[in-house]
Amino acid sequence: MSHRFTSQIEVAGPAGERYDEILTPAALAFIARLDNEFAGRRRELLDERRLRREKLASGEEVLDFRPETRWIRNDDSWQVAPAAPGLEDRRVEITGPTDRKMTVNALNSGAKVWLADFEDATSPTWSNIVGGQLNLFDAIRRDIDFTTESGKRYTICDNPATIVVRPRGWHLVEKHLRIDGRPVSASLVDFGLYLFHNARQLLARGSGPYFYLPKLENHLEARLWNDVFRLAQQELGIPQGTIRATVLIETITAAFEMDEILYELREHAAGLNAGRWDYIFSIIKNFGDAGADFVLPDRAEVTMTAPFMRAYTELLVQTCHKRGAHAIGGMAAFIPSKDPEANALAFEKVRQDKEREARDGFDGSWVAHPGLVPVCREVFDEVLGGWPNQLGRTREDVSVTAEDLLNVASAGGEVTEKGLRANINVALRYVDSWLRGTGAAAIFNLMEDAATAEIARAQVWQWIRNGTKLDDGTAVTDSLVRTMLDEELASIRADLGPEAKLDDAREIFVETALGEKLPSFLTTGAYARYLTDLA
Asked: E-strand spans in 252-388?
């Protein structure tokens, strides 16, 4: 492990090929400038997150639209900035990590936008973080290729997807970069390195530096990002408003502040996205102790047609279009296989999901695999015709109350042994993959990311805490889960072989699904230990 001090920042990660092209003294000084300016506010906002969560859990606070910001919601005059170059038409967006193969495949996929993901689809090893920045650096300069094992070489096409980078959330730090011994905000590392090296190159190509902002819980966290953008643009000497950001509405608290979030970012705002998986996790995290009305059924049964999910997505479209912002739909996670019958069934489900989104007024949607791009594009082509988006559909017919958003019981459904075992199995498989450095894992023909692990083990925790009964009357208990955990572990071990990190995955599962509290698996002691090991 090397340790070198540059521009106030101690680089505590190992050196690698071409790392010096990304970790330049000037780039590190830029990150240090941002982190020194905003570290205090970031910590205060994270403290406020925890305090509010405790109040919601105890019943001291009831979640509702903020009365003090009613004037923002009621003022019809304000709009976000017009769409930036390359973001006018977003009918298909593909998501995935920033490894070299995915970079080439995503840019060539035929999607309008690639969400280049340093967050849930990336295991944050030092090599993944710096290597991902190098891949984006090369891609923007059209100097990247990929050769398959069979020797076939792929280069970037003439009309690649627009790159939109998703940095890690405010709650995470980058342990391999430190200022005075404290780790730097992971958000500012991912954002800062990409912006510093590529902003001018992107502008010269007629595009710009665009971002997806994850895990925001309120408008004050959006205001922090907006202030980061202003300072960053000032420091780099690029015009204010050059940066554009799409916010993922993937927490239940943010769903009550969509207008306010767009307002805070309005000179930089590009839209909102319905981040369905983390949204479900957020409901469990905030209301896991709130009783049977907040207990969700098997994950597979929590569909976007559930009334409380419909309320969330329809409010998102209405809010965005009222303000001139794009509304982007949720993920289609299916991975095509060699089974034509399974593919036919899955493609039909994907088509129905995208048709619902297009009918509801979304301007585009996400897919996880290039094979799904044509399906999504065909659906939105049919609805959009010659238009690039549906901003003209203001959805004035929509009226959503706080009760609608919180009507979790409207999901209906049951908790089954199959669903319980699936949660245990998928959580173990995903965490094993993550510990081995892969954050986007193909599991049972679905592309799973960190949100999957969060939902899977959070549901188990919630069912135990609430004494939930399976459809056959069996109560979900700690003892039952531990028995199933060992059984599923033995089955997975036979599948994955000796290279798997299943004992470590089991430890993380036990810590985050069977403990008294419900921490994120990304903030556990186990996470800290293994992240250091993965350097």
From this structure: 269-274, 326-332, 364-367
